[in-house]
Amino acid sequence: MQEKDTLQRIVSHCKEYGFIFPSSEIYDNLGAVYDYGPFGAELKNHIKEYWWKSMVQMNENIVGIDAAIFMHPTTWKASGHVDGFMDPLIDNKDSKKRYRADVLLEEKIDKLKEKGEKELAKKGIDLSSSEDDKVKASRDYAKGLALEAAYKSAAEAGDLKRYKELIEAYEIVCEVSGSKNWTDVRQFNLMFGTKLGSLEETSTELYLRPETAQGIFVNFLNVQKTARMKIPFGIAQIGKAFRNEIVARQFVFRMREFEQMEMQFFVRPGTELEWFAKWKEIRMKWHLALGTPQDNLRFHVHEKLAHYANAAEDIQFKFPIGYKELEGIHSRTDFDLTEHQKYSGKKLQYFDSELNQNYVPYVIETSIGLDRMFLRVISESLKEEIVPDTGETRVVLSLPPALAPIKVAVLPLLKKDGLPEKARAIVDKLKFVGRTFYEEKDAIGKRYRRMDAIGTPFCITVDHQTLEDNTVTIRERDTMAQERIHIDQIEQLVAAKVDMNVLLRKAMA
Ligand code: ATP
To answer: How far is the CA of 295 from the centre of ligand 1 (A)?
Structure first.
C-alpha cells in the first residue's frame, strides 16, 4: 500500500470511529486544525497520563506546572521567536499554492539522491563505495549532492535569493499547476498575533505561544523556591501551542494548533551533556515500553544546531509519511534563562549550596507533540487482518490496553429476558475500572467488530447461562479468544490488563 493511502486510511478511520474530526466541518473545515471526538479525547488523555505520570509521579525531582497560553510579549523577544521563528515561503503564481522553499529544496535533494541510488544499484555499484565513485556513476546522484551543498551554504548565509535561484535551476515545479512560475522567497514568522485590551490605541500586541517551554523558564525561580527543588530538577508541562505553519497537509502531524508535552531539566553547568545522554535513554525507553518494534524508532542527530543548543537529537518514528520527528531532545545551555535575565532585569540564578556558588543552570529539554504521539499510536495499532475461522477481514486497533479509550464493553446477547438488566448491573460495577461501553443493538459479531475498530481490549457477553450461574463470556481483542468466567472475576482480570502501571513499570525498568 502507498504511504499516502495508509495516511488516508488513518484519517478516514479516525473520522468514522469518532477519534478526530476536521475542525468546524459544517463550514468546510479550518486548515490544519482538528477536533478530537469522544474516543480520540479518551485516547489523548491516556497518552497524557502516561507521559505525566512517567515524568511527575515517578520522579521525585520533577514537578509539573500549567502556565497560561498568553505571556508578556517581551518573552518572545527574549526567546528569539520575534526575530528568528521564521520559515522561508514561496508561492506558485499560477496555482497560488504556497510552499516552504526549504522543504521544496530538501524534497528535491531526496528525490535526486534516491533516483541516483536506484541507478547505482542497477549498475551493481555498492552504496557504501566512495562518494567520488557514486558521483561518477550516476548523474542524478551527483546532482543531488551538488544541490545539497548549494542549499546548505544558502541556508547558513540566510540567502533567500539563492533559494529561488536553486528552485529555478533545478527546475522544481508546482505539484498543482506543473509550472515553474515562482514568486520571490520571503521570510514568514510562524507566531499568531492577537491583541489584549478593549481599546485599539492602548491594546497590547500579544502572541499565542508557539511552544510551552517559555512558561517554564519564566517561572523557574517561582517553582524552584515554592517546591523546594534542588538541582538537578525538572519542570514538566502539557499545553497548547500555536504555529502558523505554511505547509500543513499531513493530518495531525503538522497542525496550526497543537499540544506539547515538555520537560525542562535544570542542571549544573558542565554536566549537561551527561544529562543529555541520560534523557535520550530514558525517553527512548518510554517509547519502546509501548511494544513498538525497535526499527520504528530511531535517533536523528541535528546537523545544524539552533543558536542556543550545544547538542540536539530527535526521536524519529516511522510514520506512514516516512521517518519523521516525534520528539526533540535538546541541550539548550543557559540561553533561555540568561536572555530572560537580560530582558527582565531580574536574576534567574540558583544558589548551589554544595558548591557555595550562584549560577544560571543549564537545561536539557525533552519536547514531544501530543498529537504526533497520537498519530504514532494509531498508525502502529491500526490493522486489517483475515479472521482464520471465517475468512472475513476485520479492522482492529491493537492499542496498548492502558491507552484504549474504552476498557471493556458489556453486550447482552439479546435485548430481552432480563439480559439487558443483568448487563447493566455489570457495567455499574466495572465503571470503577475505566470507561465502559454498553451496547445491545445488532448481532454480536457486528458489535465485536465495532469494539475492535476502536481498540476495546475486552468484550463481555451476557447470555441466558449468565442468569443461571453468573458466568459470562469474556473475549480478548487481539487473539479473539473467548473464555467463560464468573462475574466476580471480571473486575480483577480487566483491571490488571488496563492498568497504566503496566506501562509505567516497563518504561521505568
Ligand atoms: P518540525 O521540524 O517537524 O517542524 P520542530 O523541530 O519545529 O518540528 P519543535 O519546535 O522541536 O519542533 O517542537 C517539539 C515537538 O512539538 C516536535 O517534536 C513535534 O512533536 C511537536 N510539533 C512541533 N510542531 C508541530 C505542529 N505544527 N503540529 C504538531 N506537532 C508539532
So the answer is: 22
